[in-house]
Amino acid sequence: MIRALIAAAILLGVAQAAFAVEPSEMLANPALEARAEAIGKQLRCLVCQNESIEDSGADLAHDLRVLIRERLKAGDSDAQAIKYVTDRYGDFVLLKPPVEPATYLLWFSPFVILAVGAAGAWFYLRRRPTPPDEPLDPNQRRQLERLLIDDQ
Amino acid sequence: MIIELGHFALILALAVALLQAGLTFTGAARNDLNLMAAGRLAAMAQFALIALAFATLVHAYFVSDFSVANVAENSSSAKPLLYKLTSVWGNHEGSMVLWVLILALYGAAIAWFGDAMPPRLCARVLGVKALIAIGFLLFILLTSNPFLRLSPAPEEGMGLNPILQDPGLAFHPPFLYLGYVGFSVAFAFAIAALIDGRVDAAWARWVRPWTLASWCCLTLGIAMGSWWAYYTLGWGGWWFWDPVENASLMPWLAGTALLHSAIVVERRDTLKSWTILLAILTFSLSLVGTFLVRSGVLTSVHAFALDPRRGVFILVLLCIAIGGSLALYAWRAPALEPGGVFAPISREGALLLNNLILASCCATVFIGTLYPLFLDAVGGPKLSVGYPFFDRTFVPLMIPLLLAVGIGPLLAWKRGDVLGALQRLWAAFAAVIAAILIAYYLSHGGPVLSVLGIGLAAWMGAAAVVELADRLRLFRAPWSEVVRRALAQPRASYGMTLAHFGLAVTVAGIAASGFEQQSIALLHLGQTLPVAGYTLRFDGIGKHDGVNYTADRGDFTLLDGTRVVAQLEPERRFFPLQQQTVSKTAIHTNFFADFYLALGDPDNKGGWAVRAYWKPLVPFIWIGGVIMAFGGGVSLSDRRWRVGVAVRRAAKSALPANRSRA
Amino acid sequence: MSWRRAAYLLPLIAFAALAIYLSHGLAPGYNPELLPSALIDKPAPAFDLVGLKGEARLSNRAFADEIVFVNFFASWCVPCREESPVLMDLARRNVIVLYGIDYKDKPEDAEKFLQQYGDPYRRIGVDDSGRTAINFGVYGVPETYAIDRTGHIRWRHVGPLTADVVKKEIMPLLQELGAS
Predict the structure, then answer these.
(1) What CATH number corresponds to the domain at position C110?
(2) Is B435 helix (H, G, I), strand (E, B) or coil?
(3) Do the domain assignments include residue C21?
(4) What is the C-alpha separation between B40 and B111, in angstroms, rounded?
């Protein structure tokens, strides 16, 4: 169930972009091809900046797409196929930065900032007196008008 | 000769900017009306001079004067005239001239319409604008001068990157600059307010039109850029979380927050120091974006020429402008009088939530974009932050805000009633359920998140309509009453409804990307390809050459059963000057869905790779953006923003607590 | 200074930190596109490639007990022409043991390239599919790897070699590896 949600999340996140994979690269087995596409969507094309190997027309992207499909045909799991690539190119090739101590700051900061901001807003609201419900009486109203005239 | 005139005009503009700064700040400090009036004239003169300089550059491109280095590097004589124009800003130096031109345009506009503004406020605003102009004019003249000659002049130029030769690109940078350079006005107003020591409803009234105009332009600019990427890049992506895209999104997020918090300042005279800070930060983000794109610190698909020396200059400018303004803020903001009070659940509270979430989203994009640099600086591993990060952080953060967009406008000021608001929104709830059921049915049980996204969009859209109907007392009061109310509504409220509705439309388009269907195949002549219930037939392939390229053009017919829906002619263009192949996609749209076709590589045995996609609701993404900008424009036309009216109203609405004058 | 006033300083302090990071990005030598090799201190990938011009094959088994430099190049690669003189100079002075791997190239084109710019390599392997390059983690040409006596990769340079790189990186590296 979780995996389906994650897959849906990946699909929603990635489905906006379409594919540069060539017909000749595509695997005959649709399940394997779908896995290859999903993996390719997570790998950065190193010569194009900000594109996945699935989206890029570059030579290197083509080579890596073919490589991934070979690994899957050879029986690698998704994680193993990805590790094959990161072993050679490092974690930089992952479009999603791994969640590790070096990136805790990255991954948690959005929600920490939201929480800190919310706390700040809360304190700001709390230290104000609640708005008065009664309208001003005639004396107060006259005072107010005098002050307003003073102001102008 | 002409280009030297332009060069001279720019130098003169720098001198005028210096004069402008001197006149305005001195005039404001001494309350000398003559000096301040002279400052306004200087602002207009500055604009005229920069416009002249820009015109000479455009002229050099039009006549293909390759003795000008900038033209030789970025243009060629075989190019169509439109692209000769767009080449002016398709490179770093030329685009910087456009940048200062727009900066000066806004300054001249303030000077022109400044009659009704308090003279000292107007003067200080123009003074700050002049300081910014000085910084950037120096930057151009010292490091990025497009008016330099090349000797000997080459016979032919190097041409414009083929990918940039597109009508959509013609308008994308100017609108972007009208947007984020326009935020310099809000910035200048904030500085002026800090110097003055006073922020009141009147100030918010003055700021709002300029911020709104900038925001509209930026919305259109971002939408254009996204749409251009979509139909140009050959595989249908429209947002990549590329650093340059993020550099335009961050000011947009901050600017949206600023528009909303300025409402609170104006109506309730509170959230003042936060709004000032936001005005400073919005333009600061524009400046940081300018730095990121031009310094080589980050790489992206469309960063400009990477030159650290220019980067150093801009960084120094940033430190002076942003550091200076934040220092001024730290010094003067605590003295600003606190304003009205409000309960957490209220219109102000909703706007505060708006700001909280938009600021968090903006911070998220900022951190994601700069994290690789940060890691490298502290000696960490080399990592990259791609779209998966932003999808998992930005999207969850935005969702509560999008939900709140439906309720916020229905809450009263000072103290609101959520349950009452929700009751009035029963129609919106019904719309959500209907939308979810329809989406689920039509997509045959498509991705859960997409279906829910459609529901969210339905909520936002229906709530906007319900809110308007509620205000007009539709179905509850006689028609004459409804019409009377409709005519009496301030345009700004229609603007709000339109803008929120536009946002709903965009959200629908984004959510529907999960329903996309694709077919990729190798086709021979006469073969067909089924795509999403349609049939695509490959009819022919031929050569079609353009002014500066050769191309293979495919002829395809899109069929629905036997009915011909469209003829599509995608191309693969080869530009001999740059030795680059660019794919030109063929898109058939009925504004509710796009059929997207790209021609791939031939296999040299008569077969051609063909990529076909059916993308439902994708046009909504940009249509929504246009509606949002239109809503902003409607708001801008509101009589209340006319500067004269604001003066009289401001006098009446100033609260007694707000009496400090620095 | 009260807490409240101190809070107003936060934006300025945050910006100061940002400015410091941004200036790091401007430091010469910082290039966001340059990736460190993931294979540093790891064994060099095994490969066995056809030789160029019908010569003997090139495999890492040939790298006996010596410090070896492997240079990935191609005839279609413009920066490779820039580094040719530097490589020729290194070969002539017999400073390093240099092998070449011709990446995704037509053999005739490679031979023409070497005729025109010189052949500094002891031997050349042909990596037609690019698979060996991928195993090394190559993402563009030219790239140069240094493999020590135990067969581990100890250094990689992305982009053309220059006299500066030779002086500041290769010579010290040779000393360091020679000593080990």
Answers:
(1) 3.40.30.10
(2) helix
(3) no
(4) 5
Mean pLDDT highest for which of A75-79, B572-576, C63-67?
A75-79
Structural domain contains residue B461: no
Rg (CA), chain C: 21
Helix (H, G, I), strand (E, B) or coil at C31: coil
Chain A CA closest to residue C140: A47
Q: Is the minimum CB–CB distance between A59 and chain C shorter than 8 Å?
A: yes
Q: Does a structural domain hold residue B216?
A: no
Q: Is the pLDDT of residue B23 over 90?
A: yes
Q: Which domain holds residue B121?
A: 1-165
Examine residue B171 and state whether it is found in any structural domain, yes or no.
no
C88 lies in some domain = yes
**What are the backbone dihedrals phi and psi of residue C99, each rounded to the nearest 5 degrees, phi first?**
-115, 150
> Can you tell me the distance from the alpha carbon of B302 to that of B293, in angstroms, rounded to the nearest whole number?
8
SS3 B520: strand
Flag whether B89 is in a domain: yes
**pLDDT at residue number B335:** 86
Note down the domain range covering C163. Answer: 38-177
Within 10 angstroms of residue C153's Cβ, the number of other Cβ atoms is 21
The number of distinct structural domains making up chain B is: 2
How many domains, in total, are found in chain C? Answer: 1
Task: Say yes or no: B596 contacts chain A, CB-CB below 8 A.
Answer: yes
In a domain, C2, yes or no: no
> Which residues 102-141 of A are in CB contact (within 8 Å) with C?
none
Judge: A88–C35 Cβ closer than 8 Å, yes or no.
Answer: no
Residues B520, A151: C-beta atoms closer than 8 Å: no
Q: How does pLDDT run across A17-69, given as a tens digit for each residue?
A: 335 677 777 888 888 888 999 999 999 988 876 788 888 878 888 899 999 99
Q: Please give the mean pLDDT across all residues of chain B.
A: 88
- Contacting subunits of C (3+ beta carbon pairs below 8 A): A, B
Taking an 8 Å cut-off on Cβ atoms, the answer to whether A106 and B392 are in contact is no
The pLDDT value given to residue B641 = 59
- Tell me the C-alpha to C-alpha distance, in Å, between residue B300 and each of B87, B180, B296, B578, C163: 20, 20, 9, 20, 30
Q: Answer whether A15 sits within 8 Å of B415, measured CB to CB.
A: no
Taking 70 as the threshold, does the pLDDT of residue B379 lie above it?
Answer: yes
